[in-house]
Amino acid sequence: MTSGWLLAAALTALMGPVCCLRVTGFKVPSIALIGSDVELDCSFSAARNAKLYSVKWYQNHEEFYRYMFSERTPVTAFTRPGINVDLARSNNSRVTLKSVNFNSSATFRCEVSADEPDFETVYRRANMTVIQVSEDGPLINGLRDQYELNEQLNVNCTSPSITPNIGTHQTKLSWQLNRQTMDGQTIQMQSADPSQTVINLRLILTERHFDPKTGLLRLNCSFTVGRPTAIYFNRSLELSAALMHPTTVLDPRPTQRSYKSKDSRSASYSSGGRRQFRLSLVTFLAVIPYALWTCCNPC
Question: Does the pLDDT value for residue 56 go beyond 80?
């Protein structure tokens, strides 16, 4: 056992260090919005004494970006349909694509190669689809302006359409009532447009569904594209409805309080002072004639 280990160590010493080149981080967004800028990341590691040769990026099978470690001008970008490299924001571990379009959709591959004597090459790849989301939606249908207690709320929400159709596994349409998620009471409906999703919300309205101060219920429909860890698009619509004939809704105007504030007490004190001053003035005016008569008619 010991002799085998010693033999392996001797062979390693004779052959030199093993490159151990690895791609340690790779990020290509699965979804990109048309017209947006996209960052493609490819980080790697190698043995301490290993010499790297190049990093190359491919769209499908066509090279569009190359970084040569030994060159004085290491970066070269190639023209491809749907590929517009932002050289100022690109390096040996990141490539930035400007204003992607439908032609940008492809399988992207990052290929890292070591220099001699190993010439080892490792790679990673992933798919990216460029989509366009329509301006209309999400749309809420069936919501009335007013409801009575114990009436049924029956509303539909329709998502925007997406080109091309990416299915429903990367999209989510959801209800919120007064900021509370209503997934448990949501029903998926069939849509005439396969690129759209329609969900229904149906429930009996009680007092707890209305805000006690305003008498309103707030209904929100939200549409997202992506996953919880990577949201590529998010848009929502919020509408409100009022409770008809409210009985427990508080008056939104400020209530009049029975106690007096500090300012009102000060005002009452000032008012009392003015009444006392008027009384003293009347007394003074009444005394003046008697004082003058006394001075003019001494005893």
Answer: yes
What are 285's two structure tokens? 């005016």
DSSP 163-194: ES---STTEEEEEEETTEE-GGGEEEE--SST
Nearest to 171 by CA among 234, 238, 102: 234
In a domain, 249, yes or no: no
Q: What is the pLDDT of residues 45-55, one digit of tens each?
A: 988 778 899 99
Which of 76, 107, 132 is the last residue in one of the domains? 132
Do the strands 146-147 and 230-243 form a parallel or antiparallel pair, or are they unpaired?
parallel
Distance, in Å, from the CA atom of 129 to the CA atom of 10, rounded to the nearest integer, reads 50
Query: What's the CATH number where 187 sits?
Result: 2.60.40.10
Alpha helix (H) residue ranges in 185-261: none
pTM for this structure?
A: 0.71
